[in-house]
Write a sequence for this structure.
C-alpha cells in the first residue's frame, strides 16, 4: 500500500511539474507578422497569407494546380534569428498528412534547428493537431552576443501558422541573412526533399549550409517536368546559378521529347539571362538498376538525351552550360529509401557533388 501511495504521489508531482512548465508564459514571434524580414529560400516577397509559399500568388493561374499546391509546402524555407534563451519552442499547425510510408513525420512535417556554429540542435517533439518542438539546454551567451539560429521548415507539408517562443526575460530577434550567391533549383521530389529523415538533411538545405548560399528550392514532387510556365517564374529571379534537375520525372517520355524539353528550357532561360550559369543534372539512377534492366535503360535514355542536348546547344554557341554527371553524384544501392528517392546518405552525396561543381562555376 505504501509503495502504491508513493508511486501515486510521485506521478502526481511529475504531472504537476510538467503542467507548470508547459503553462509558463512565453514571448512569441510570428514570422508572418514581420514581412519585412522574409525567410531564406523564397524568391518572391509574400504577404502574410502566403508567407511560406515558394511561388507567388499569381502563379495559381499560370502553372498547373499540382505544381501550385506543392509550392505551398515550404521545402528549403528557412527562418533566421538570434536568441540568448536556454530553450526555444516552435509550435505550428499543418494542412496535410504527417508522414508517408517511405518518409517519417520528422522529414515530411518536422522542423530542424541549427546554430550559427553549424551544429544541429536536438529537440523533443510532439505531432498532432498542433506540432510542438522544444529545443532545450541551449547555451546562454554572456554579454551582448546572442547565438544565431536557422530553422528549416517542413519539406512536404503546408504550414497554416507557426510561432516561435522563448521564456520571459530572454530575447529572440529575427534577421535576414546575407549571402554571397543565390542558387535557384528546379527539380522533382528528390529536390523537394524525399526522402530525408528531417529537413536539415534534404540536399538543398545541405547545399546551403555547405556553401553559405541562399538556395531557392523549386522542387515539385512528381511535377518537375521542365514546363515553360514554371520556367517563366524561374526567369523572374536573378540568381548566381540555375539548376535544372528534372530528369527523374521525365523517364516516361521519349528521348526526342526529353531532348526538346531540355533545349526549350535552356533557350527560355537564356532569353532572359544570357550569361547566368545553368547546371543540368543527369538522372542519378535507380536503387535497383543493377538488377532491373528496364530502370537501367530508362535512366540511360534520359541521360543520353541530356548529353545530346548540351552538345547541340554548345555547337550553337550557347555558353555557361554545366553538366552534373550521374557518376559524380555517385549513388549506390545503399543510397536509396526505395527505387528512386535517396536516403540521408544519398542526400549528402547529392549535396557534396553540387557543392563541388557550384564552387567551380561561381569562382569561374
Amino acid at each position: 500500500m505504501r509503495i502504491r501511495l508513493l508511486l501515486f504521489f510521485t506521478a502526481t508531482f511529475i504531472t504537476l511539474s510538467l503542467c507548470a512548465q508547459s503553462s509558463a508564459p512565453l514571448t512569441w514571434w510570428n514570422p508572418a507578422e514581420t514581412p519585412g524580414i522574409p525567410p531564406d529560400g523564397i524568391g518572391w516577397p509574400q504577404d502574410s497569407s502566403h508567407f511560406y509559399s515558394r511561388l507567388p500568388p499569381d502563379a495559381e493561374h499560370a502553372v498547373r494546380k499540382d505544381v501550385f499546391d506543392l509550392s505551398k509546402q515550404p521545402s528549403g524555407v528557412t527562418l533566421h534569428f538570434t536568441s540568448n534563451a536556454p530553450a526555444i519552442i516552435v509550435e505550428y499547425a499543418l494542412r496535410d498528412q504527417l508522414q508517408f510510408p517511405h518518409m517519417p513525420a520528422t522529414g515530411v512535417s518536422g522542423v530542424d534547428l541549427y546554430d550559427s556554429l553549424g551544429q544541429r540542435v536536438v529537440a523533443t517533439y510532439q505531432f498532432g493537431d498542433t506540432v510542438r518542438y522544444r529545443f532545450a539546454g541551449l547555451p546562454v551567451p554572456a554579454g551582448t552576443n546572442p547565438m544565431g539560429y536557422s530553422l528549416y521548415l517542413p519539406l512536404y507539408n503546408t504550414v497554416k501558422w507557426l510561432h516561435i517562443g522563448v521564456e520571459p526575460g530572454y530575447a529572440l530577434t529575427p534577421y535576414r541573412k546575407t549571402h554571397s550567391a543565390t542558387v535557384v533549383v528546379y527539380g522533382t521530389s528528390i529536390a523537394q526533399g524525399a526522402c530525408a529523415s528531417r529537413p536539415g538533411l534534404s540536399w538543398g538545405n545541405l547545399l546551403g549550409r555547405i556553401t553559405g548560399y541562399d538556395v531557392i528550392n523549386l522542387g515539385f514532387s512528381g511535377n518537375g517536368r521542365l514546363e515553360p510556365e514554371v520556367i517563366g517564374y524561374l526567369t523572374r529571379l536573378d540568381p548566381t546559378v540555375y539548376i535544372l534537375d528534372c530528369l527523374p520525372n521525365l523517364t516516361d517520355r521519349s528521348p526526342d521529347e526529353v531532348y526538346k524539353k531540355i533545349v526549350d528550357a535552356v533557350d527560355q532561360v537564356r532569353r532572359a539571362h544570357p550569361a547566368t550559369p545553368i547546371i543540368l543534372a543527369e538522372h542519378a539512377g535507380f536503387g535497383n538498376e543493377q538488377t532491373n534492366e528496364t530502370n537501367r535503360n530508362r535512366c540511360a535514355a534520359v541521360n543520353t538525351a541530356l548529353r545530346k542536348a548540351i552538345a547541340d546547344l554548345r555547337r550553337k554557341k550557347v555558353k555557361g552550360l554545366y553538366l552534373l554527371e550521374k557518376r559524380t553524384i555517385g549513388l549506390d544501392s545503399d543510397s536509396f529509401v526505395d527505387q528512386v528517392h535517396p536516403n540521408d546518405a544519398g542526400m549528402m552525396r547529392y549535396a557534396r557533388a553540387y557543392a563541388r561543381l557550384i564552387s567551380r562555376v561561381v569562382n569561374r
